[in-house]
Specification:
The protein is mainly α. The protein has helices at about 1-20, 45-65, 70-90, 95-110, 115-120, and strands at about 35, 40. It is built from five helices and two strands. The two termini are about 15 Å apart.
């Protein structure tokens, strides 16, 4: 059950990245996700970064589904790309998910979470 929930989370997290950055921006959107406090408006870079994060997160989900040993490393890479993307293109709306990304990276790398008994790998 935990394994399935974690797979769904990884896939949903990837989908949210694509929805925020790769989908066309509606004219009444509350903020411009492609505007960086550091780089200005860089839609192409933001979309490329979001696609990279999404691809890594989907790969991690597929790896976990397939019981592959490498799923953790790919998940950490995807979460790290996601974290950096949301720092460079920061908006206060991203604050919660930044904490989630950081917590998951710490859990996967240092706390060995989720445990092998939870996810089977």
């Amino acid at each position: 059950m935990w394994r399935l929930l974690f797979i769904v989370f990884l896939l949903a997290h990837a989908g949210v990245h694509l929805a925020i950055w790769a989908a066309p921006m509606p004219p009444d959107a509350p903020f411009d996700a492609a505007h960086s406090w550091l780089l200005g408006t860089q839609r192409g870079l933001a979309v490329a970064w979001a696609i990279a994060a999404a691809a890594l997160l989907v790969g991690a989900g597929i790896g976990l589904w397939a019981h592959a040993e490498w799923w953790r490393a790919v998940a950490v890479a995807g979460l790290a790309v996601s974290f950096v993307l949301m720092v460079v293109f920061f908006n206060p709306w991203f604050t919660f998910i930044e904490g989630v990304n950081a917590g998951l990276i710490v859990g996967l790398v240092w706390l060995d979470w989720p445990t092998e008994s939870m996810v089977g790998v």
